[in-house]
Amino acid sequence: MTVNRYPLRRRELMAALAVCVAASPKALAQTAARTAPALLLAQAWQAGLTPRDYLVSEKLDGVRSYWDGQRLLTRSGLLIQAPASFTSRLPALALDGELWLDRRRFDAVSALVRSTRTDDAAWQRVSFQVFELPGAVGPFEQRAERLHELANTARWPGLQALPQHRVADEAALRRRLTEVVQN
Asked: Is 26 a catalytic residue?
């Protein structure tokens, strides 16, 4: 391989390309404009907690996304080039969730999110599985109910409230985990 007519080893070429990409005006502008949204992150279950005091949901294999009411962003704050046919149907309030296609389809949804080319047909198969209302007041149970109301009002399969369930005890929690893993 050669760059500027000087032979380079692969490692040197990759370093040279990284410098060129990092120095491009588009990359600099995107990095400068990026502000990571403050999102809640899941915590590991701690023994001794009472599961019936919590709502439980499946951890989807999608791309964590934040809708600020106007723009769809990645967890790190990069703009997602979703088509207007998708974003125009989202409400004008902040939503936290996962862009999702289906189980075992992470690579496909990740590629779609990373693409700089908007593909309307591909986005028609994506759903925004929301599980939080950032900045909303009240306990999580009330916010989860509000998400279900929003999704039902939207009457659009692209916006779904991630189901939240109560489990009676730790044994029921383990059974639920086994069921999700088997799926």
From this structure: no
